[in-house]
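Forum > Structural Biology > Help requests

Title: Can anyone predict the 3D structure of DUF2187 domain-containing protein?

Hi all, first post here. I have the sequence for DUF2187 domain-containing protein but no way to get a structure on my laptop. I'd be grateful if someone could post the structure tokens.
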Amino acid sequence: MKKADVKVGAIVGAKSEEELKKPFQGKVEKIYENSALLAITSYDPVDETAVNDLNNKIVVNFKHLKVARAAKNSKTASTNEVKVEKIAKKKDDKKSSKSKK
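Reply #1:
Sure, ran it for you. Structure tokens for DUF2187 domain-containing protein below:
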């Protein structure tokens, strides 16, 4: 993959002969001159210990990146993304909160 093809936030497939045995997927967090910092999002279970040692992040050269495909038989890393939803109050809750005032 070329530097121009890599965008921050994109999910890409990658391989790293030094750190992980199997190909994995990651989200691009930062782009450097010849490589990109990836947050590992999906990986083979045999690499679980190595991924944990890397704190789910790895720097990979552009030549080892490719367009991501759906990974099968892989483990998904947990992310720090949190979804917040507003919970509607019931009529009974509204009455009790008014009586407390």
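The CA atoms of residues 88 and 94 lie 10 Å apart. The first helix runs from residue 48 to 53.
Shout if anything looks off.
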